[in-house]
Structure formats: structure tokens, C-alpha cells
Amino acid sequence: MRAFLVASLAVAGVAQAQTADSSVLPDSGPRAPIRPPTPCVVLRVVDGDTIRCRELGLVRFIGIDSAEPDQRPFGAAASAGLAAMLAVGDTVQLEADVEARDRYRRILAYVWRRNVMLNWMMLRQGWAVVLTYPPNVQWVDAFVDAQQKARDERRGLWKVDGFRCLPVERRRRAC
């Protein structure tokens, strides 16, 4: 139990140490939406790849996967990583891809705040991994590059071996 607590605190500390400011990174990712965006006001960060918008309900970030909140300690760190980029009441821009909703009826989107794509930023800072579902692959090359750089630099959960078992594998209890 003590080891778990220490690991949780270490991961939480990593989450708080990094910011959403793309200027701290040597690369800044995609510059602007390709498709016309839709504004949404953030009501809450659900986890590291989902937010709730006032006008639209649940929004699932396209192309990324993060640990769920109950996947301790990594889920809390991923959620904290996204929460460091967004505050309740912030207005973000949602860019659609080919499919508008997932099987759970959540809106699928690339989420932009102040000309920074948060999907990309979650990968670049090491709080999420690439997970694509064609045909929603508009930014996949940038995502793969961001993930590789985060891994090479041991950012976020890469620093604490948080992706030894990928989030999707944890959900399936495969590791």
C-alpha cells in the first residue's frame, strides 16, 4: 500500500510540473484547424481524453487514449495533465473529422485552445498514447511524431513507465 501511495504522489507531481504552454516545447504541433471549428464551454474534465461541454455534452478527443480515472495511479495523472491545460468555463474550439460521434454517442473532436491542439499536446507531454479509429485520421502523422518525441524525452507517464501496459490493454485486463 505504501509503495502505491508513493507512486501515486510521484505521478501526481509529474502531472503538476508540466503546463499546456506549447512554447516550452521545441515543436508546437498543428497550427490551426483544417475544418471549421465549433465553440464549446468546458464544464469539466472527465479524464485525460474526455471533457464535458455546456452546449454539447461529452466530447471524446480523437486519436488519443489515456488511462481511465480508476486505473491508478496513471488515470489521475492523465486527468491532471489535461486539467492543467483547461479550466472550467474556458471556451475551446472543436474540430470534427469524418465521423461525428462514437458508439457511446460522444462527440468526437480535435480540441483547440488558443491555437494549440490539446489532443496533440496530451501526446507531446506524455499523458496519452495514439489510438486511431479510421476514418478519423486527419492528424495521425503529427500524433505519432508527438508520441515518439514524448517517449524519447521521457515526458509525463513515459517517465514513470506508465505506458508499459497501454490504457486500452488495462481496460481489457490484458496486462
Word description of this protein:
The chain has 175 residues and is α+β, with helices and mostly antiparallel strands. The chain has a single domain (9-164), classed as OB fold (Dihydrolipoamide Acetyltransferase, E2P) (Beta Barrel), CATH 2.40.50. The chain has helices at 2-17, 74-83, 118-124, 140-153, 167-171; strands at 38-47, 50-53, 57-61, 64-65, 91-95, 107-113, 116-117, 129-130. It has a five-stranded mixed beta barrel with strand order 1-2-3-6-5. Strands 4-8 form a two-stranded antiparallel ribbon. Helix 1 runs parallel beside helix 2 (74-83). The chain is globular. The model is unreliable at 1-23 (pLDDT under 50).
Keywords:
alpha+beta; 175 residues; single chain; globular; OB fold (Dihydrolipoamide Acetyltransferase, E2P); five-stranded mixed barrel; 8 strands; two-stranded antiparallel sheet; disordered N terminus
Give the strand content: 15-25%
Number of strands: 8
How are the strands ordered across the major sheet? 1-2-3-6-5
For the residues shown, what is the average pLDDT? 85
- Do you know the CATH architecture? Beta Barrel
Largest sheet: 5 strands, mixed, barrel
- What are the low-pLDDT stretches, counting only 5+ consecutive residues below 50? 1-23
Order of helices and strands: HEEEEHEEEHEHH
Specify the CATH class: Mainly Beta
Gyration radius (Cα, Å) is 15 Å
Number of domains: 1
What class do helices, strands and sheet pairing give?
alpha+beta
Tally of contiguous helical segments: 5
Distance separating the two termini: 20 Å
